[in-house]
């Protein structure tokens, strides 16, 4: 426990310094990296850990220091050392797929290691069967790219040129890879100097006491404010990935049995027993390492939805303090969460993102719906080919709508990675041989509900040269589920000149002049759509978020709409017709607490909902 004599003012100073250093490291990477994925899309993050390998910062998730210390004991580390790894199976669960490259720098004070600064991000290409190192039909990790176990990339300030040469030689984008790694190493070394100054200023004993206080505060806050709201008992729910790139689409189950015992030292037990066997294709996630410590910190942000207010939720960081509150039980080796090397993992987002929803779903059952509906806010789409400047790869991580909440609509086009963004149109058109003809919200994509699901993107790309299209996307059959009477959102969809693509595509040929249309997922709705005030539905139609047809069919609101210059000009509601229609529609109450949309019966053999969907 925390030393009660620790200076609370100093704790605030140390906590603020940690956040400032983390932000400075990320800013330095963003300003000096070369690849669009790192520099523009911001698909990377930094983290600060103490000498006990505990994550101190909570603005974003990060990888782990455990694999570095496992292979390079702390006593052997020297100032100027930089460690590197991307090997999924030797990362202790901290790395999900090979394009995520991780650098770790020890912080020194008085000759001893006192902390670590780490950065990892999704890089353009690290080799493998297809550009981008994410072959959607891979059957083995050896098809996915270059695997690097923990190595010393810099030795006391001297870069390991041989290792860098090997890595860049294996990449289709060697200049971007070299530039990104240089940016990340330099930024982490800078962050290590900043933290060293903190120890020099206040002394090791005082700063480490503050570290303990920061972590203990998180433990007690989560226990007192959040976990206390979950009724004791056993709660079960499951959700599914729909395809793995090899087998025909089917339900790949991820199940959580949540046991809550407030009197126990570890009040939450998350048991993944019942999760499907590992897939042939690349949707597996190696999560059963280091007692599941990465997954504990990955899943814990869902608990923040139990906060009293949205404002309080935003104040709660997730650091190592959540780890003592959660015990994880993994099934035997050979499941989606416990794959056996060399099972492929490049599309592991299908599992770890779904697990966020499974935990939200089981908590919704336990709390009477006091959790958001489902969201699926990450998928990779892109094109590659030849331009005047040589080979190119454009890969973008487009977000989708978040789920409706018990107090508000979902957010439109968000992304699970903090501070990430889509690639600016102006940058894309100047760099690559295509034209973006539309980038807007996908009308009617959000799940209908008293609180509507957020909308996804609708993006149209016209190719100016022949190219190949690629996609790593789930929720193209199954929708983001609605809860407590809310309806499912619309699934992901890609068409090329009207021809619908599968969610997992490596190399579909696209000819010059053809249009790729990408519509990302809408979040699920919360509560009955017939309880949404009709005036708000009319406002959604005016704002272009719901069509007049959607207003009538999904919400029971009858409107007459006039248009001018292609835009909605005036919306008039027929009050009496709306009341009659809603009265009739309310009689068709959903049979289950969750609505999975029309895709679920297609994969379940005609079942309207899963057995676990009722409360």
UniProtKB/TrEMBL annotation:
Domain called Hydantoinase B/oxoprolinase: residue spans: 7-529
GO MF entries: 5-oxoprolinase (ATP-hydrolyzing) activity
Source domain of life: Bacteria
One Pfam family linked to the record: Hydantoinase_B
Region of interest called Disordered, as start-end residue ranges on this chain: 592-615
GO biological process terms, semicolon-separated: glutathione metabolic process
Name of the protein this chain belongs to: Hydantoinase B/oxoprolinase family protein
TM stretches of this protein: none
InterPro entries: Hydantoinase_B, Oxoprolinase-like
GO CC, alphabetical: cytosol
């Amino acid at each position: 426990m925390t030393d009660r004599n620790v200076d609370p003012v100093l704790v605030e100073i140390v906590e603020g310094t940690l956040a400032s250093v983390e932000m400075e490291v990320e800013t330095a990477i963003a300003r000096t990296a070369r690849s669009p994925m790192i520099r523009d899309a911001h698909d990377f993050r930094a983290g600060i850990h103490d000498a006990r390998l505990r994550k101190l910062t909570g603005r974003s998730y990060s990888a782990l220091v455990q694999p570095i210390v496992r292979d390079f004991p702390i006593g052997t580390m020297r100032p100027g050392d930089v460690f590197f790894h991307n090997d999924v199976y030797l990362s202790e669960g901290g790395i999900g797929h090979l394009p995520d490259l991780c650098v770790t720098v020890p912080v020194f004070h008085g000759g001893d290691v006192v902390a670590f600064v780490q950065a990892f991000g999704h890089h353009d290409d690290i080799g493998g069967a297809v550009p981008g190192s994410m072959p959607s039909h891979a059957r083995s990790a050896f098809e996915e790219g270059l695997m690097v176990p923990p190595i010393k990339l810099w030795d006391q300030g001297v870069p390991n040129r041989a290792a860098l040469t090997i890595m860049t030689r294996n990449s289709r984008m060697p200049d971007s890879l070299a530039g990104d790694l240089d940016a990340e190493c330099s930024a982490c070394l800078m962050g290590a100097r900043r933290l060293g100054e903190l120890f020099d200023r206040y002394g090791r004993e005082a700063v480490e006491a503050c570290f303990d206080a920061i972590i203990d505060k998180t433990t007690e806050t989560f226990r007192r404010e959040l976990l206390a709201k979950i009724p004791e008992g056993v709660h079960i729910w499951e959700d599914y990935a729909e395809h793995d790139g090899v087998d025909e689409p089917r339900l790949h189950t991820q199940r959580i049995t949540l046991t809550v015992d407030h009197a126990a030292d570890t009040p939450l037990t998350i048991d993944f027993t019942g999760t499907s066997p590992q897939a042939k294709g690349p949707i597996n996630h190696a999560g059963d390492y280091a007692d599941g410590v990465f997954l504990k910190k990955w899943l814990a942000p869902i608990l923040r939805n139990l906060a009293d207010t949205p404002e309080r939720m935003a104040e709660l960081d997730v650091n190592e303090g959540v780890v003592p509150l959660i015990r994880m039980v993994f099934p035997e080796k050979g499941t989606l969460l416990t794959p056996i090397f060399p099972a492929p993992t490049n599309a592991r987002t299908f599992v770890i993102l779904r697990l966020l929803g499974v935990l939200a779903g089981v908590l919704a059952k336990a709390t009477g719906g006091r959790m958001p509906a489902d969201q699926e806010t990450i998928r990779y789409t892109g094109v590659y080919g030849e331009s005047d400047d040589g080979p190119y790869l454009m890969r973008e991580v487009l977000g989708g709508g978040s789920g409706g909440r018990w107090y508000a609509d979902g957010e439109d086009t968000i992304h699970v990675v903090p501070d990430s963004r889509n690639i600016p149109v102006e940058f894309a058109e100047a760099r690559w041989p295509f034209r973006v003809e539309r980038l807007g919200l996908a009308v009617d994509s959000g799940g209908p509900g008293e609180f509507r699901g957020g909308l996804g993107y609708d993006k149209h790309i016209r190719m100016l040269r022949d190219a190949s299209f690629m996609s790593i996307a789930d929720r193209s059959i199954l929708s983001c589920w609605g809860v407590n009477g809310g309806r499912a959102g619309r699934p992901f969809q890609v068409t090329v000149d009207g021809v619908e693509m599968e969610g997992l595509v490596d190399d579909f040929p696209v000819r010059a002049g053809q249009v790729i249309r990408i519509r990302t997922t809408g979040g699920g709705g919360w509560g009955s759509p017939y309880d949404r005030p009709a005036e708000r539905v009319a406002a959604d139609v005016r704002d272009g978020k719901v069509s007049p047809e959607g207003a009538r069919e999904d919400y029971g609101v009858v409107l007459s709409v006039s248009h001018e210059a292609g835009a909605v000009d005036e919306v008039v509601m027929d009050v009496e017709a709306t009341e009659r229609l809603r009265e009739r529609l309310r009689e068709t109450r959903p049979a289950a607490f969750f609505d999975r949309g029309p895709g679920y019966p297609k994969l379940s053999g005609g079942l309207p909902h899963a057995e676990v969907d009722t409360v």
